[in-house]
Specification:
The complex is a heterodimer. Chain A is an alpha/beta fold. Chain A has 14 helices and 15 strands. Helix content of chain A is about 30%, strand content about 30%. Classes of the chains: A alpha/beta, B mainly alpha.
Chain lengths: ~425, ~375
């Protein structure tokens, strides 16, 4: 008896391993990789329209690996993803309606990118976020984006590299955050900025753009578009989209927010009255905002940026870059260009009255005794505050060449 | 009455597991709702209350060597009142134990297994605790020594690993809230820390009695750092206000971990930590209430009470709360008064003061 009872238990217990109530088979799941939400007319009321891009895992993983080699991978016939669109009064309602049509359980745990339409963004994103933060499936690491047109169209598009547009956007956001004007914003960031009540949230803008070059196969299929990140969208403190920032303003913003990681800055340079262009490559950028309270009682901001560049390209190449004086000329021009970009961003944000830099937060951190008197009126104060920008630029290396190839002419050998 | 003997280190580690296991899941939300980004200060301030509780309970035990809290209550307050307070303490152990089981079930329900009935979790963990306690104090105190390591490693990993999402400037300005609010929130955090008075039930089972106050203080301080670490990490990742808007900031923090696309989806680590930690916490409360009942009624043995009290604890937890909103309402409004401000610190402190002014009675031979 003493042996039989434990043996019996050992035989019974493995039956429990399959998880009882919450057992889910992966084959039964429809893995949503991206969703798009927009406002829609719904029987005279405003409702929402949700589009899901759902992965076809077997094909998608094959397509992913073959993208390293050549050709579109996967089985012929089956696409790497499929999409579904539905309307409803809440997001959950729209999702529940999908169940009538699809044979799988919708699983939101693999969402990578969420795209909001312009209409939804202008009416305020706050209600849309509740589903995303409350759900036990979805994570705060997923990326947010705004589309100027119909966001569902972006999910329905096929991208030439990863096939799934969501996966290509996800890769852009993951690997190219801080490159040029790209700023990846994940949900935790967005929600944090919303929660401050002062700082304006931002989200990158994604658009369908024509491909610049087509393979014969794509021409045949009429697949001429691809997805691209173009600039940033600035929201007000209630999560309503105010306006879009263009590339230059986005770049200015990235300098101040210490998010710039990779950047090619092209500056003109004059030699003997002739213009030639020099491209610099960002190595490291660091900005500091210091706040002081001016005599008029308004806060006063000094943005100090320190940027290190390497020389990347000298287009024209009439002169070897051996002259230290020339390099300090480059530094000056580059510095003023950075300052211009930052000032453009500051000007735009003050025009829109969106504190995208978090200047109000900066006042709160540096002058917390004075902050309560500004807090209530920050919206009126922000367009009036003075911001000065300084930039210190250093050019360190010139990569592997001293000068552009060609015969040595004037100024050589200095 | 307890036949087993444990070492001072085992007791300190047991108290550490008991104190740490539920506070890290509930306190960040409740604290951040009150004081936003300053929540970690309250965790450190609560250490003071915890140290006070530890010192009081050790001082009481030093005055009454070989006796548990329930046994020396009648010596201090006189027999009738002492028995009444002993009964209240037993009820406190049972009630807090019931809440812990409920918290555990709700946590699993919300985070990973929504469809499984909470009763299932409660019954299985209770069965496990009953089984462990039947093995004797020595056994589960030793198991705890091994498994606490897993709990702490999991927690520290979840605190540190989301570093790529952290922005420490979200912690600024430091101490922006009025001191009164910080202190009142630290009372809430300190209520969990004051569970250190459970040591009063274990001290007679110690094999030696030299560094016990030092050990308990170290474990209270250590828990202060872990809780503050969780809160600093959560505020740096989510910001002060969003931390208070999440049901389990610590769990959400684990979900943020994504390093080089390999370290991903580590939240189950945290569920494992909770499972192990709560198991020992329930064991500790069940043990204290069983021992307490036996001593209040003057039984010579306490093992035979294990089964009825396990069932009672289970019944109490099944009937305690309907859902998490009720539970968090209880935790934020009632728990400081029920924990730190009465059974956790104030009553033991009063007992100690009374004991100071009363002559030490003749110790009853066991």
């Amino acid at each position: 008896m003493k042996r039989i009872i434990p043996a019996f238990f050992i035989m019974i217990l493995p039956l429990l391993l399959y998880g009882c109530w919450d057992r889910v088979e992966i084959n039964d799941l429809a893995l949503v990789v991206g969703d798009a939400h927009d406002q829609a007319e719904l029987a005279g009321k405003t409702g929402i329209e949700t589009t899901f891009q759902i992965a076809n895992p077997a094909v998608m993983s094959a397509g992913d690996s073959s993208s390293l080699g050549a050709g579109a991978g996967g089985r012929e016939g089956a696409g790497s993803f499929w999409t579904i669109r539905e309307t409803g009064e809440t997001i959950r309602e729209a999702v529940s309606k999908m169940n009538y049509r699809i044979p799988k359980q919708i699983f939101l745990g693999h969402e990578r990118v969420i795209i909001f339409g312009d209409k939804a963004a202008r009416s305020g994103l706050t209600p849309f976020f509740d589903r995303l933060t409350r759900s036990r499936e979805s994570r705060d690491t997923k990326f947010i984006a705004v589309s100027k047109g119909d966001p569902g169209k972006i999910l329905e598009q096929e991208s030439p590299i990863f096939q799934s547009t969501v996966l290509s956007l996800y890769n852009i956001f993951l690997t190219k955050d801080g490159w040029q004007g790209i700023m990846a914003v994940n949900m935790a960031d967005f929600v944090y900025r919303l929660s401050t009540g002062v700082t304006s949230p931002l989200a990158p803008v994604v658009e369908l753009v024509p491909q610049t070059s087509l393979t014969p196969k794509e021409k045949q299929a009429g697949n001429i578009n691809t997805v691209a990140v173009t600039g940033l969208a600035a929201f007000d403190t209630d999560g309503r989209l105010v306006d879009y920032l263009n590339e230059r303003e986005s770049m200015g913003l990235l300098w101040v927010m210490n998010r710039a990681k990779n950047r090619v800055l092209t500056i003109p340079h004059f030699i003997g009255g002739m213009e030639e262009l020099v491209s610099l490559n960002l190595v490291k950028a660091k900005s500091k905002i210091s706040v002081s309270i001016g005599d008029d009682g308004l806060p006063f901001f000094e943005i100090k940026t320190h940027v290190n560049f390497d020389l990347l390209e000298q287009f024209g190449g009439r002169r070897e870059i051996v002259d230290v004086g020339m390099i300090s000329d480059f530094e000056k021009t580059a510095g003023s260009k950075v300052i211009n970009e930052i000032e453009a961003a500051v000007k735009k944000s003050q025009q829109l009255n969106t504190d995208v830099f978090g200047l109000g937060e900066e006042v709160r951190r540096q002058h917390r005794r004075e902050w309560p008197q500004y807090k209530e009126h920050w919206k009126e104060i922000y367009p009036l505050v003075n911001v000065t920008v300084e930039c210190e630029t250093h050019i360190r290396n010139r990569e592997l060449s001293v000068g552009a190839p060609g015969s040595r002419t004037e100024g050589a050998g200095q | 009455m307890e036949p087993g003997k444990i070492s001072e280190r085992q007791l300190a580690l047991l108290i550490t597991t008991t104190l740490i296991s539920t506070v890290v899941f509930w306190m960040p939300q409740l604290g951040a709702r009150a004081v936003e980004q300053d929540v970690w200060i309250t965790a450190l301030a609560a250490t003071i209350w915890g140290i006070l509780s530890a010192l009081v309970i050790v001082a009481l035990a030093r005055r009454h060597p070989g006796l548990t809290l329930i046994e020396y209550l009648p010596l201090i307050l006189g027999k009738p009142l002492g028995k009444v307070f002993g009964g209240l303490y037993v009820f406190w152990f049972l009630f807090v134990g019931a809440i812990v089981i409920r918290e555990f079930a709700h946590f699993l329900n919300i985070t990973i297994m929504p469809k499984t009935p909470p009763a299932f979790f409660m019954v299985t963990i209770m069965a496990l605790c009953f089984y462990a306690l039947r093995g004797g104090l020595e056994v589960w105190a030793r198991v705890n020594e091994i498994l606490l390591f897993v709990v702490v490693v999991a927690m520290v990993a979840v605190i540190v690993l989301p570093y790529n999402h952290m922005d420490l400037s979200r912690l600024l300005p430091i101490a922006d809230h009025p001191p009164g609010l910080l202190i009142s929130t630290s009372l809430l955090s300190g209520s969990w820390r004051s569970e250190v008075i459970l040591a009063g039930m274990f001290i007679p089972a110690l094999s030696c009695f030299r560094h016990i106050s030092r050990n308990l203080i170290i474990s209270v301080v250590f828990i202060g750092f872990i809780v503050a670490g969780v809160e600093i990490s959560a505020v740096a990742v989510f910001g002060g206000v969003p931390t208070g808007q999440k049901e389990f900031p610590f769990f959400s923090l684990a979900r943020m971990i994504s390093l080089i696309r390999i370290f991903d989806r580590l939240e189950v680590l945290l569920v494992v930590a909770l499972l192990l930690g709560t198991f020992f916490k329930i064991c500790a409360f069940l043990y204290c209430s069983t021992l307490g009942v036996a001593q209040v009624f003057g039984f010579k043995e306490f093992q035979f009470l294990l089964l009825p009290l396990s069932v009672l604890l289970l019944a109490m937890s099944l009937n305690s709360f309907k859902g998490v909103p009720e539970l968090t309402d209880f935790l934020s409004n009632v728990w400081p008064g029920y924990g730190l401000l009465s059974f956790g610190l104030v009553i033991p402190l009063l007992l100690y003061l009374i004991a100071l002014f009363r002559p030490v009675r003749q110790v009853r031979e066991p």
